[in-house]
Amino acid sequence: MTWRAAGRLGAVNEQQRQASSAQALLASGPGLPLIISPKGSLDADPSLWERFGLKRAADKGELRALDESLAEKVAAIRASGATFTHMLRPRGTSRVFIVQGGPAPAPYAPGTLLLWFIDITESERKMEVLHGQNQRLSSTLDALSALIEAAPFPMWYRGPDLRLAMVNGAYVAAVEAPDALTAVQSGLELVDESDGKSPLSQAAAVREKGEAVARTVPATVAGQRRMMRVVELPLGETGVAGYAIDVEEREQARADLARFMRAQRDMLDRLSAGVVQFSRDRSLTFYNRPFARLFALPLDWLADRPEFDRLLDRMRENRQLPEVRDYPQWKEEHRAWFTSGMAAEEEDWLLPGGTHLRVVAQPLPDGGLLLIFEDRTEQLQLASARDTLLRVRTATFDNLFEAVGVFASDGRLQLWNNRFRQVWQLEEEELAAHPRIDALSTRLAKKLKNRSQGALIREMVRSATVERKQRTGQVQLTGGRDFEFAAVPLPDGNALFTMIDVTDSRMMEAALRERNEALVEADKLKTAFVSNMSYELRTPLTSIAGFTEMLANGYAGALPSAANDYVRAILDSVSRLSSLIDNVLDLTQSDSGSLLLAEDHVDLAAMCAASAEGVREAAERKAIMLDIGIDPSVGIVAGDQRRLRQSLDNILTNAVGYTDLGGKVSLRAVGDARGASITVTDNGRGIAAADRERVFDRFHRTAAAMGEGESALGLGLPLAKQFVEAHGGRIELQSELGAGTTVTILLPRQAEAEIAS
To answer: Residue 346 half-sphere exposure, CB side, CA atoms within 13 Å?
Structure first.
């Protein structure tokens, strides 16, 4: 029993597998089944009802819920057991079904019916599209056939065997056949054999080549011999189509045109002018011998039919075109001759060799161009020489400020300008006689303050014309005007004599020289005055300082506290005034070259630190942050330590003084083997562009002076600049208004041996 149970279980599983496979095949098939029991109940897949837009037809009670006619056919075959096919279009949907019905196979009970619903909606839609295309193609074919029949020239079609299958009325008339059917059945060919090839072999060659072929061949049309242009087109395996156009008149006109062109070219070849002709594609089609001789072009090169552009390029290489600044633009303008209409264009060409050509460009009706070159060099030589002389005389000489005269190699005056005549007060008639320099120099000497210089002018002209040497000189006329003159040899053997009035420039030069001497003398007097006043101020200042110190030390008895404050104020003022006088003396000594510098061993790092400490108290009063950065590489230089310290103190004092409360002043010092650099930077008010160029001028005050005293007088930076430059260094300043100022001291390095000495 266990063995049998296992066997039956396997069979059941196999049946279930087969049932699943059958169900999958049924679901993927093109049709959906419907089982109708003998009692009329319906059994189908739910998807069938969905396609019909129903939840379930059985809910309606009968098959009529799907289709009335389908229900009638099912009722009709239930008794007979026959099969049927029915097209069904369910209501409310756009779907189309083919229904195939008949008795259901075993093991269904007798009287059971099986209906297969096959959805052919997409196929039906495609068939409708194809039907519409078929109708349009049929209409197009009818129209094309009517067009071919109405064509005034012969047309034909050859079938797969390349024999005539269809011809139009023009073809029938050309071969003189009674009708198209007779022409096709008899195989009447329009074109005779050519080059030993029959029309069939020609058609076979066209089909083998796979593209349209055109040829001009003789043909007999209505009993007359005509030239026909035959075009045949391959249609694949279906055959070959063709048509023929009568070109007899065109060929006759072409022959007449060829005869006319030969006669015309024979005539043009006998002209003395050069003639060249270009075709529509701008290639050379004709030239005559005068053209080849005129432009020295090889005949074999011209025989290659060069294009218009190539011909112009070759002519330019041979220097047979006018010299132009922009040759590509010039060529583009002349290329427009081909498209300028039927009006002729005329130009004059002056070639580099001196040849003058008259060029006529005549566009041709066929799109070509005819060019005629006439050599007019001999006709225009005299006119050109005359025009050149006039242009040189009027455009060059008469517009010059200088007095100009041109003397020929024999010493005669050839050309002159109005300025020349006005300076020497000569008459036009006298100059028109072209006097020699010997006679002219006698007249010119009368206008000179030193008459002996007349011979100098004559000798200079002779030297320029004969010896080809350039000479210059100066003369003064009797009216007091001064002139500089020169005699220059010209390339053509003549001499150019020029004179320019320098009276005003010399007067201006003398006035400037006198003014400069006066300014120098005034500056010396000012320097001496300031120096003497400084020395004179020292004596009373020393007495004031001495007596004030005695008062401060109690030599005159004890002083009240208020008096002590007054004494200290006097001492401070004396100290500032003494420093100011020392600075003024240093400036005056520097100007006079008497400033003496010590040769100290200056430790720049220590000097920078001491200067920073000197302004720290003033910086703290304004809450200014001092940023000190001294690199040991700044090292040692040789120089006057007091002067260098004074220069740095002045720069730092200015930086602190011109920086607002809460600002920042930076001091940086670095160096290398060549020298040292000390940079002071502040973020204060900055210097306006108008003051930036004058901050190193003595006694100059900027628009934002910081107060009274030395700095307000503008002595700090000028002194620093003079002291640094006295050590062989320089000061650089960079500043922007409202963005702060940077001042850099650059000092050269000196060897320690030199410092020690």
So the answer is: 2
**363, part of any domain:** yes
Three-class SS of residue 626?
strand
Nearest to 462 by CA among 442, 432, 441: 441
With b for 16 or more beta-carbon neighbours within 10 A and e for fewer, the 636-665 pattern comes to bbbbbbebbbbbbbbbbbbbbbbbeeebbb
Structural domain ending residue among the three candidates 191, 214, 246:
246
In angstroms, the CA 582 to CA 710 distance is 11
Asked if pLDDT for residue 232 goes beyond 80, the answer is: yes
**What backbone torsions phi and psi does residue 536 show, to the nearest 5 degrees?**
-65, -35
Per the CB < 8 A criterion, the answer to whether 261 and 269 are in contact is: no
Look at residue 680 in the predicted model and tell me its pLDDT.
92
750 and 648 fall within a common domain = yes
User: What mean pLDDT do residues 254-267 have?
Assistant: 78
Region of 81 (left: φ > 0; alpha: ψ -120 to 50; beta: rest) is left
Residue 534 falls inside a structural domain: no
CATH number at residue 181: 3.30.450.20
The 10s digit of each residue's pLDDT in 70-124 is: 777 887 777 677 788 888 777 767 778 888 888 888 888 888 888 888 877 778 7
Cite the DSSP H helix spans in 554-627: 561-592, 604-621
Same domain as 338, residue 371: yes
Q: Report the C-alpha gap between 297 and 354 in whole angstroms.
A: 18
Of 152, 183, 178, 151, residue with least CA distance to 167: 183
Residue 366 sits in the same domain as residue 388: no
Non-local (6+) Cβ contacts of 397 within 8 A are 404, 415, 416, 417, 420
pTM of the model: 0.33
pLDDT mean across residues, the chain: 79
d(CA 423, CA 402): 10
Report CA dihedral (709, 711, 714, 715) to the nearest 10 degrees: 90
Return phi, psi of residue 647, to 5°: -60, -45
Residues 274 and 341 in one domain: yes
**Which tokens go with 321?**
């075109």
Q: Respond yes or no on whether the N-terminal peptide bond of residue 107 is cis (omega within 30° of 0).
A: yes
Tens-place pLDDT, residues 202-228:
888 888 888 888 888 888 777 778 888
Statement to judge: residues 165 and 50 lie in one domain? no
Q: Tell me, yes or no, whether 603 and 748 share the same domain.
A: yes
Compute the distance between CA of residue 541 and CA of residue 570 in angstroms, rounded to an integer.
Answer: 11
Taking only Cα atoms into account, the Rg of the chain, rounded to an integer number of angstroms, comes to: 60
Query: Residues 484, 500: contact at Cβ < 8 Å?
Result: yes
Distance CA 389, CA 382 (A): 11
CA–CA dist 19, 34 (Å, integer): 18
Q: Kindly tell me the number of DSSP H helices and DSSP E strands found in the chain.
A: 25, 27
* Distance separating the N- and C-terminal Cα atoms of the chain: 135
The 3-state DSSP class for residue 356 equals strand
Report the share of the chain in percent with pLDDT over 70: 84
* DSSP-based three-state secondary structure for 266: helix
Number of domains in the chain: 5
397 has a pLDDT exceeding 50? yes
* CA-angle at 486, arms to 482 and 491, nearest 5°: 160
Name the residue with tokens 């004058």.
694
Nearest to 628 by CA among 646, 647, 655, 602: 655
Q: Which domain holds residue 169?
A: 151-246
Spatial neighbors of 138 by CB under 8 A, at least 6 apart, are: none
Rounded to 5 degrees, φ, ψ at 156 are -150, 165
Longest CA–CA separation in the chain, Å? 166
pLDDT, position 58: 46
* Whole-number Å distance between alpha carbons of 259 and 266: 11
Other CB atoms within 10 A of residue 619 CB: 19
